[in-house]
């Protein structure tokens, strides 16, 4: 046995010891000691594994099918059937931990497109094994998980990409170039919205316990979240509307719509956050939300200052009011949403993914193209980066060094909504990932169910509330989840 084989065997044995591999299912994460990933030449093909391949994951894998798709993992084999049949040579798995244990030496890169709450644990484990990772948006479920993936990617020097495809499109680049060139002056307010959700939200938690289909491994779907009885309302598509598994319309679409905002304005951590919504339930995201995030003054650019700026978000059918001068009859919604950059000289408008930017004044800027454009695809640009050495690699356009902090901004909006009953603007210490103005004695309650009924033609509500809980403890749990027994993340790099 050579040295490399000995290292792999040591890691494999440690993984098996820690994970307690058994027929009944795996329980713990593998060791954080990284295995050496095979390095490919630029003319060679990557060996790619997919985790969560029934929906968006299938699309990503088809976009990189010029490479070798060697392994497919999903907890719902009915939903994944199409992908399994499309890539018949790929080995099939229920559990991604077993896949990485058995095929770790034969996998170069991993595509993660599971429910939001398992993105981080899969990606973090793959990174510590030296695997390149492509993770669908939102990057993670929490602020802490975003920070973790950012630091792990830097430590292990792997190629990364978040699946916000607009990052590789012309719209984000053009919008950013116009702003940085001073075409609209200083921006102190931004308004953005999406027409989502297009899945159910604002629902009471189902009380019916349904039998688990033979094609579904429910325990693995729940993963690090708290166990609950199976109900078909949670998956495969509707997970986005349930707090334990998704991040609502904001988490789904802000990663597309707010990217030109984050990039164009050089945003970092917000310093203040406030949210409001329709009825906020313990389990389900609300039907509609409004969020305001405040970002501090940033370093001025050569042609424009970067003052303190407010970013306002709307979803659930809500939109900003049309500004003065808006063309009568023009729909603000462009491919799922839109953004208004209110500058001191002009207002810049773009659609989802930063599409088709234009100025409210009607002027068309003549600005040099200084940012890169991708001529292949968002997915294949990641493949290109995977094949380059860390020392000379040209980064993708949504690497975790940018996508991680950006995703923190997105899930901060979720925090603002879920903490709205504190009835105040929250002050945020981004560096230390904590709120600074929640008192030790403050408590918070949320609605378990609305108790809606119609009796003799009259609608009635009999809301069931949680018991008051410590607000700081509640907030900290949203910032960094306590994982279910048997599921752990790698440690945060120093």
From TrEMBL:
SUPFAM superfamilies, A to Z: Glyceraldehyde-3-phosphate dehydrogenase-like, C-terminal domain (SSF55347), NAD(P)-binding Rossmann-fold domains (SSF51735)
Any one GO molecular-function label of the UniProt entry: nucleotide binding
Residue span(s) of domain Gfo/Idh/MocA-like oxidoreductase N-terminal: 48-163
InterPro entries assigned: Gfo/Idh/MocA-like_OxRdtase_N, Gfo/Idh/MocA_oxidrdct_glycsds, Gfo/Idh/MocA_OxRdtase_bact_C, NAD(P)-bd_dom_sf, TAT_signal
Boundaries of every Gfo/Idh/MocA-like oxidoreductase bacterial type C-terminal domain copy: 207-262
PROSITE patterns tied to this protein: TAT (PS51318)
PANTHER family: BCDNA.GH03377, NADH-DEPENDENT DEHYDROGENASE-RELATED
Official protein name in the record: Gfo/Idh/MocA family oxidoreductase
């Amino acid at each position: 046995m050579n040295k490399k084989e000995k290292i792999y065997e040591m890691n494999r044995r440690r993984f098996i010891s820690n994970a307690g591999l058994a027929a009944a299912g795996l329980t713990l994460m593998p060791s954080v000691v990284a295995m050496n990933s095979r390095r490919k030449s630029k003319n060679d093909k990557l060996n790619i594994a997919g985790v969560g391949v029934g929906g968006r994951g299938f699309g990503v894998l088809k976009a990189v099918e010029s490479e070798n798709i060697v392994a497919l993992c999903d907890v719902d084999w009915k939903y994944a059937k199409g992908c399994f049949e499309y890539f018949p040579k790929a080995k099939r798995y229920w559990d991604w931990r077993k896949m990485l244990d058995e095929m770790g030496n034969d996998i170069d890169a991993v595509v993660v497109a599971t429910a939001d709450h398992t993105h981080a644990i899969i990606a973090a484990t793959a990174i510590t094994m030296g695997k390149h990772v492509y993770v669908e948006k939102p990057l993670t479920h929490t602020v802490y998980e975003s920070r973790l993936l950012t630091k792990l990617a830097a430590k292990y020097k792997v190629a990364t990409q978040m699946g916000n495809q607009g990052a590789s499109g012309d719209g984000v680049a053009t919008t950013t170039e116009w702003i940085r060139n001073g075409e609209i002056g200083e921006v102190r307010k931004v308004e953005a919205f999406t027409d989502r959700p297009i899945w159910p939200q604002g629902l009471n938690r189902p009380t019916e316990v349904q039998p688990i289909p033979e094609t579904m491994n429910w325990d693995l779907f729940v993963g690090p979240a708290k166990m609950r009885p199976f109900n078909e309302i949670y998956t495969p598509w509707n997970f986005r509307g349930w707090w334990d598994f998704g991040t609502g319309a904001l988490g789904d679409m802000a990663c597309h719509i707010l990217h030109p905002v984050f990039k164009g304005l050089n945003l970092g951590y917000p310093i203040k956050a406030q949210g409001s919504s329709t009825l906020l339930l313990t389990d389900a995201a609300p039907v509609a939300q409004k969020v305001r995030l405040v970002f501090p003054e940033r370093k001025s650019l050569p042609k424009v200052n970067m003052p303190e700026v407010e970013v306002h978000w709307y979803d659930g059918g809500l939109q900003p009011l049309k500004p003065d001068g808006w063309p009568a009859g023009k729909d603000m919604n462009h491919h799922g949403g839109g953004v208004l950059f209110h500058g001191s000289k002009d207002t810049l408008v773009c659609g989802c993914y930063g599409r088709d930017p234009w100025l409210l004044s009607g002027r068309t800027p003549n600005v040099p193209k200084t940012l890169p454009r991708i001529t292949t695809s968002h997915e294949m640009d990641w493949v290109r980066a995977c094949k380059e050495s860390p020392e000379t690699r040209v980064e993708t356009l949504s690497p975790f060094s940018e996508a991680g902090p950006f995703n923190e901004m997105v899930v901060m909006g979720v925090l603002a909504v879920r903490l709205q009953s504190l009835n105040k603007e929250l002050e945020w210490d981004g560096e230390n990932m904590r709120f600074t103005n929640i008192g030790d004695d403050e408590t918070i309650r949320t609605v378990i169910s609305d108790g809606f009924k119609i009796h003799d033609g009259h609608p009635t509500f009999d809301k069931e509330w949680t018991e008051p809980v410590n607000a700081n403890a509640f907030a900290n749990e949203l910032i960094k989840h306590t994982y279910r027994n048997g599921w752990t993340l790698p440690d945060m790099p120093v």
